[in-house]
Design a protein that fits this description.
313 residues, alpha/beta, Rossmann fold, Arc Repressor Mutant, subunit A, 2 domains, nine-stranded mixed β-sheet, 31% helix, elongated
Length: 313
Amino acid sequence: MSMLPFKPAHHLAVKPEQQRWLVSHLWSEQAVGIIGGEPKCCKSFLALDLAVSVAGGRPCLRRFPVPYVGRVLLYAAEDGQDIVRRRLEGICAAAGLILEDVDIQVIIAPIVRLDLEPDRRRLEETVAELTPRLLILDPFVRLHRVDENASGEVAPLLAFLRELQRRYETAVLVVHHSKKATGSIRAGQALRGSSEFHAWGDSNLYLQRHDNELTLTIEHRAEPCMPPLALELVQRAAAIALEVRERQPAATVPPSSLEDRISAVLSGVNRPLPFAELRARCRVRNASLYTHLAALTAAGRLIKSAEGYCLAK
């Protein structure tokens, strides 16, 4: 029996920074992984945005650069071909591209099942022929008839996709659903079915909607992760695509006590404030203000003069 191949650790290949990313800071080069989220969270829009970016060489979400352009192979199991084309055209318009110039190949077979050997063989032959940099399968639930909660049934399907990735040096992206109403559960743990899904991914993207805000959480197995991003689906003329929305700074928390409110008002002016003006700004009754002003003056925190009150230096 022959030994397995091996080499010293210091002989292992080292990739420069630009070769570590398929999409910079968003998806690792040749990574397998998942775009996960509840229904109506724009998972397919994000997958198609990645497709346009990789195939067209434009930054994903207009923010994350693509170091090298390459072909994308897409299987959209739930959407009609007209819907897929319309979405791709809208994203291309947002990216300043024309769909005809973008190398995205779409599998148009009505059914592809990873739990059937003939379909696995056909998919592998397609990948071998087209050699895409990115394979997108959307969604996973339409690719099999196994029990997604059973690790022993899910693991072989994910292992097959990992084998495709390694054998043909292609990234593999699978769109998968999350459980509903997951609340504060960690995004990866909210994926529907077996924990194999979360463990499998090298790069995973999770979309969560809270009220009207859509949040993207990014996870990598071997790279640092950036903080969550706020996304928004925006339409401008023919262009419709996801965009990163800058979060508004948190509103200043108003002072909790009347003493703090008095200090906050007086610190915001460079002159003494008469009692009437101070009362209007603090929105408090006369008796309460008198009591607190007297106490603060006696404590040496305020100075009272003919012009009004000011903070002690």
